[in-house]
């Protein structure tokens, strides 16, 4: 049964979800990284909860132009996966750690760029002021969770083998913005925890 798309539902689901660390044995070293999945607690009259997303500058050496959650590689001084996600979010968007209520974390996910990514889900107040770092963020925008469960938004791109495992590829086409790759996978993981199975329209 699907949970309602409310912050209360997200909090309830994550409170009982135990994050599964990445445990596959692979023939390469994977570096730890974290991202924050920031949720704005918007009221239902304004469309309900929203995800904060960023677009990387086109000039970046890697991930140029991609839509992403704030995050990055874990530094030695980061005390935990959560600390890494909060530090990166403050560096990229200017949101201080004290302004984020951590709700939990999704299962770890490996990326094709050699990272094991922990996605920390956090609640951000609607009036939180953002100060994007222009070197890392070209644009900040938000997307309603309710838009991401529409069958005409989700796209199934088939499967591929990565690290010896068949993995699904997907994308979300929200207006003129295309969310794909690791970011799309994390969104799909969150929605599936809430009981929403993807209803693809097929690749475009």
User: What is the global morphology?
Assistant: globular
The name of the CATH topology of the domain at 7-145 is Nucleoside Triphosphate Pyrophosphohydrolase
Determine the number of helices (DSSP H or I, runs of at least 4 residues).
Answer: 3
**If classified by CATH, what would the architecture of the domain at 7-145 be?**
Alpha-Beta Complex
Q: Which structural category do the helix and sheet elements fall into?
A: alpha+beta
Full CATH superfamily name of the domain at 7-145: Nucleoside Triphosphate Pyrophosphohydrolase
Beta strands, count: 11
The percent range for strand residues is 25-35%
List the helices and strands and how they pair.
Blueprint: H1 7-16, E1 31-40, E2 50-55, E3 67-68, E4 71-73, H2 81-93, E5 100-105, E6 109-111, E7 115-124, E8 139-144, E9 154-162, E10 165-174, E11 177-180, H3 181-193
Parallel strand pairs: 1-7
Antiparallel strand pairs: 1-2, 1-4, 2-3, 2-8, 5-7, 6-7, 9-10, 10-11
């Amino acid at each position: 049964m699907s949970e309602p798309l409310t912050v209360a539902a997200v909090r309830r689901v994550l409170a009982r979800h135990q994050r599964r660390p990445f445990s596959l044995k692979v023939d390469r070293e994977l570096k730890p990284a974290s991202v924050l999945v920031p949720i704005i607690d918007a009221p239902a009259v304004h469309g309900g909860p929203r995800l904060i997303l960023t677009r990387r500058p086109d000039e970046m050496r890697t991930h140029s132009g991609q839509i992403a959650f704030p995050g990055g590689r874990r530094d030695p001084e980061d005390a935990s996966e959560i600390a890494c996600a909060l530090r990166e979010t403050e560096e990229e968007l200017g949101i201080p750690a004290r302004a984020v209520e951590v709700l939990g974390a999704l299962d770890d996910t490996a990326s094709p760029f050699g990272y094991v990514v922990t996605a920390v889900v956090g609640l951000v107040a609607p009036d939180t002021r953002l100060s994007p770092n222009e070197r890392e963020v070209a644009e900040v925008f938000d997307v309603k969770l309710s838009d991401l469960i529409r069958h005409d938004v989700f796209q199934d791109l088939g499967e591929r083998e990565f690290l010896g495992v068949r993995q699904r590829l997907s994308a979300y086409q929200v207006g003129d913005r295309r969310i794909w790759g690791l970011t799309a996978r994390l969104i799909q993981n969150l929605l599936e925890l809430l009981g929403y199975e993807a209803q693809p329209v097929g690749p475009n």
